[in-house]
Amino acid sequence: MGRAKLPRAPFCINIEVMGLHYLETRTLYFDDSFAHYAQAGEDGPAIIILHGWAASLNQWDWLLPILANAGYTAYAVDLLGHGQAPRLSHTHTVEDYLDYLYGWMKALDIENPIFLGHSMGGYLSLQYALDHPGSVRGLVLVAPLYGHHQFDRYHQFGRWLLTKPEMLRAGELVFGHIPNWLIDASHYLNPKDIGRASAPLRRQVTLDHKRADAQIVRTILIVGDLRPRLHRLMVPALVTWGCRDRLLSPGSFRALVDMLPMAQGHCFADAGHHPHLACPQSFIELALIFLRQMEDHMSRSAGKHRGRLPNVGRNGR
How far apart are alpha carbons 161 and 164 in whole angstroms? Predict the structure, then answer.
């Protein structure tokens, strides 16, 4: 089958007011834990949205009705230590995040989902797909983390400082007392992203940061390098990022597109680390095009490849 390319996405749209549509959230108790999540839609294929570091599901709930209207059952869930989820332990691992996610999915009977993950949520999406071959339908990755090599030298130095026990304790102590202006700078980095964010959205970003468990500072130290395993990931994937990302190297996302066997990529020219917030309309259009294309390919190839997902092509490298 020839390569199918995504149409070029429109330029970023400067949205002055982007309201946050707070959906009714739910609490699900399972095993010895509980999960805080939102859901829109009932009968379509499942899409699970995983937010980034120091964020919450509330930064994504505006997207759930859109996905539901497109025929999906869309979920957004607070990750451990974030939002209204359970707190983290001092010795938490990546496996703790994944076990928690798997337990919640099992309790809801969610099978073969599509993961939409941003930054750390992208890392967990990739890790889950690698750990559960054949159980993930597709991936939409937004500025995904997949190794420490993506950070610039300043962030690399910051991570090195956190390996010192006294600096780690200091980081945890000051985490909840960071001023709002510094939260803006640390989350957006690209000043144009700050200018595009509506006042309600910026308040939500600040709230999410301040209510996150200080133990998430340790998460920076426990993520590993996924590059040696990525060639095994036979899952259709869309990788999106901001060309002005100052947290993770934009070149690392182009490299990720090349490493994933079934990936397409797109760089939003005028966005930073949060292209879905800086360019929401363009991001939504691109994601829906990819999802529709993926479903069409899977429908046409049903019974021909004996369950192997087709290569939906590449672009934007």
Answer: 6
